[in-house]
What we know:
The complex is a heterodimer of chains A (293) and B (343).
Chain A: H1 2-50, H2 62-65, H3 70-103, H4 106-121, H5 124-135, H6 140-147, H7 161-185, H8 189-197, H9 202-230, H10 234-239, H11 247-257, H12 262-286
Helix pairs in contact in A: 1-12, 3-4, 3-7, 3-9, 4-7, 5-7, 7-9, 8-9, 11-12
Chain B: H1 2-23, E1 28-33, H2 36-54, E2 57-62, H3 66-74, E3 82-86, H4 87-95, E4 121-134, H5 145-148, E5 157-160, H6 166-173, H7 186-196, E6 200-204, H8 207-215, E7 221-225, H9 226-234, E8 239-254, H10 262-273, H11 275-284, H12 302-305, E9 319-320, H13 323-342
Helix pairs in contact in B: 1-3, 2-10, 2-11, 4-13, 6-7
InterPro entries (chain A): MetI-like, MetI-like_sf
Subcellular location (chain A): Cell membrane
Pfam families (chain A): BPD_transp_1
Amino acid sequence: MSGAGSGALNARELHSAQQRERWYLMGSGLPALLLVLLTFVLPIGWLFWLSLFDANGQLTIANYTRLLEPIYVLTFVQTFKISIIVTITCVLIGYPYAYFMIKGPRWLANLAMGLLLVSLWTSLLVRTYAWLIILQRRGIANDLLMSLGITDAPLALVHNLTGTVIGMVHIMLPFMILPLFAAMKSIDPIYNQAAAAFGASPSRAFRDVFLPLSLPGLAAGATLVFVITLGFYVTPALLGGGKVQMISMRIESDVSMYANWGAASSLGVVLLVATLFMLFIVKKSAGLGRRGE
Amino acid sequence: MRSINKQMTGLAFALSLCAVAQVQAAGSVTFAGWGGALQDAERKAYLKPAEAALGIKIQEDNMDGLAAVRAQVMSGKPKWDVVELASNDCVMAQEQGLTEPLDYSVISTEGVAANFYGKNWIASNAYSTVLAWANDAGANTPKDWKAFFDPQVKASRSLYRQPYTTLELALIADGVSPKALYPLDVDRAFKVLERIKPQVVNWWRSGTDSAQLLRSREVDALSIWASRVDELKKNGDDVDYTYDHALVDYDCVVVPKGAPNKELAMKLVAEIMKPHSQATLVTLIPNPPINTKAYDTGIIPAAMAATLPTAPANIDKVVFFDPVWWQANQAEVQRRFDLFIQN
């Protein structure tokens, strides 16, 4: 009797302790939740709301119909095209780089990580201007190419898409390599040894064991690079020579030209929706969200 | 998105400064300009003398164009009393109700031509877009607009990344008389631009960038603000420029709607427009006076006056920019231009 009673009491106490803890946890998460709501959800809602009004405060869809004009369509296409090129290039350079940091000699791997971090910690503006100087007509790159006899006349390496992509890939590489490195680091080398023990060649072990296990890191890196690249402003503005226009540059131009915030807000809304849509498609088609299985 | 962030930061900053504005003592006005060498020169030529003449304190701030003024006015409590903007921004700000009418019983327009002021704005200093070139780029480098826009003259070129001024220069090169420039023949201008587009290495976006393009010899010739190339030349770079068919535009001052010290703001504008202030400015930075009486003050050396585009001797050699035409047509032409330079 007393045993059963104390058992029920215990369960009740346990239950209330659990409840308390849950409330406590929720309470401690509340400030962060409020912060996200205040600084992220509300402004985006406000942005969307603004995009529905014209300069006189009248409800309108003009801010959206304008986006069907050739210049806006071209800018959207160009923005996504650049983001895709940059993401693919980052994967092609970043994957071997991260792999090297895992498998290479320790001191070289440390050096590779150091170089990556120094680059990450250098101001974006400084790196962009550095590329401008390297790639320009009388810059180091062209001097080198010409002294090696690879080309007679200077190549147009900057003030165009080429220069923009070079600059952006450099800036985005750490965002690709760091998640990849973390994912690869967590792969136990024993898996590869097991594959070898079962007779897999090194390349087969890589393809069937290492590569699939590193995919979540690759997906995280690629998503990060793709999304950040969509919003680039400084690098395409400086290295594109005016011939490359991305959405953020269009937003700036519309903010200064039109009397209402709505004219530019609609661009932000469409970019956000298009980005979410793209990520959804990528997630569905690549099946990269299935790590938990 | 970065750009929006910038704007929002500006807004937040503006809001936080409103509180500061309220504790300022009476007898104080706030002037916001473009910063840099221009505002340094303006401090000496306009602001310090005005402080002495009016017995007030002048606070200074920097801004980067109409969007900043819009953010302040829309916040309901602007902090700035007098703001210096580009000419088309002044016209647009008036159109969009962002500025107060100027009090012309306080501000004298004597010596100021009628096309240099409007209901809510008055031009404060002129600046020219000129053709500049590197002397070491070879004998064939274009030295007038006609050659600059001639595709047979091979050179690496740069032009402003905005349709305004750029379209005008193309039309002048194609033989349109400066007096008959407006309304702009937009189609014709684009045809002229199309011819040299493959040789336009870069469409520059800021004054700093344009100077850098010439200094690094990334381009042989370009359209550039006179003050920028003048600075290079003074620093010993082997470059030169011409005022022939220079396109003269101007900065102008406005009083934002709801400015805290409106009456003093009008007095400050009056001081800025005085021949003495106008003449002093051009001795510090090559932004020539709007008030032609400045040329009678004796402050501007004769040798310098001979080179200035607003001086009586040169006024026929230059072309004047028309912000009113642009205010009406910019949105459409801008989109066409942005599309044009991307293909």
